[in-house]
What does this fold into?
Amino acid sequence: MKELIIQDLHVSIEDKEILKGVSLAIKSNEIHALMGPNGNGKSTLLSAIMGHPKYMVTSGSITLDGVDVLSMSVDERSRAGLFLAMQYPQEVPGVTNSDFLRAAMNARRETPIPLFSFIKEMEKTVKDLEMKPDLAHRFLNEGFSGGEKKRNEIVQMKMLKPSMAMLDEIDSGLDVDALKIVASSVVELQKEIGCGILAVSHYERFYQLLKPTHAHVLVDGKIVVEGNEELVTKIDTEGYDWIYKEFNIVPIQEEKKLAPLSLGSCAASSKGKQV
Amino acid sequence: MKLIDVGGRNNVIIADGYQEWIIDTLDPLTLDLTCDGVSSVFMNVKRASNLKIKMTVLENAGCTLLIWNNTETKVEFDETYVVEKSSYLNLAYGECNVSDTNRNSKVSLMGAGASAIIKSATLCKSKKISSITCESLAPHTVGNMENYSVVLEDGEYKMDATGKIVKGAYDSRSHQTSRALTFNEKQKATIIPQLLIDENDVEASHATSVGQIDENQMIYLQSRGLTHNQVLSLITVGYLMPIADFIENEELQQILRKEIESKVVESCSI
It folds into this structure.
């Protein structure tokens, strides 16, 4: 039995406090739904748990089975059993899915996984997620559609078998059929390895398939309401207004960033520079 | 694997099919090569000081040449290639060694319909200076150039990449991509891409980047359990590995892949 405990967590980005005292406990075999209006700290919580350096933990604690998570680097957290299926998975040209996943699997094993075993497991996982068989040889997420990227996150999750998995809007960008495939894969994996799950989504449809054991609503950096699957249904039908009224709270309005206007450039990467 | 030492034969008509050559001399060496069929050559340069390669690919012929620089001392390459009418040259150059290199390479697409693919991959731990030119001298010619480099500590990389289309070489194309990956701000990498175009009815482009691994990519890969150094290794191998598959010979590909991987792991674990 694994347990992830978050206590009174405060997190800032560039001196702006986003999380203002979040407490949460997730055990093996539990599925927690994390809901809330946009821009109120859901993704920040998940990224802070995973250790993204952009998110500064100013106070509070995170432990996994009593071990301090905050003192670990990102890769150490992963090897300790945490997994974050990202909302916007990165594209990494030049690195194939199979090379990457094999390296990631070997990073948590004492002896490297035999090539044949790896290929067999990868082929089965790719088939389970109904992805194209050439996935293993394609560069990591490069040229993938939004839905393919999300499915590939679940491929990685199934191969790495975490003890605590976090899903950040993994259902966005998925069509109805893909949503079912992803949800059933997550549920199957959870039954198989008994991991705990913390899932962020805006849609009841996804939660109906996941069947969360717990639900939490995060508003203005704090968890304001907790419950079970019924809470998800209530929010789906009534929205968040009743929470604002009942608890006399005002949600943070998501900032709309203006996209920079390009006047055109040469084909060189904007990140590249002559040294 | 059968290895052919071409040290004693300077004028070589390249036989059809696949062959492997070893260059193993510290004396200055000039190779006059002619390709009149369809051939592919892996040139393993073990020792050299001053290596001149002059190659002509005759009309309707095709040559794939992979030069692998494995020297332990400084070497100068001076290469000229002439590609005649309706023929092709696939030219690749790879190096993971620690000695300095000066390389000048010029590909002239002399006849109508001639084409060239020019690639290089460099794991740079020393001074690696290259100048590569692909010139279109006749109509309907195509030159595509790709240079990839990973610059490590104490490495200095300089690449002058030039695509040239002369007047009269209409309906020609010249494209080039050059990328250098550095691991910190102290490492020196310079890429100078040039397009010299003197004809209107052509296509030409260049893409260049010099920079460090994207921070978001680094965190993404680390979030799956890979250490910083493992991520560097993985991305470096990804930059250099395509050169290993340049010649369709599985045995050679395996050897080069292993060599690249071992050199990268050795370099990135420092």
In short: The CA atoms of residues 113 and 198 of chain A lie 29 Å apart. The interface with chain B takes residues 50-53, 73-75, 77-79, 83-84, 86, 89-96, 99-101, 103-104, 107-108, 139, 156, 160, 266-269, 271-275 of chain A (CB under 8 Å). The longest strand of chain A covers residues 16-27. Chain A has one domain: 3-247.
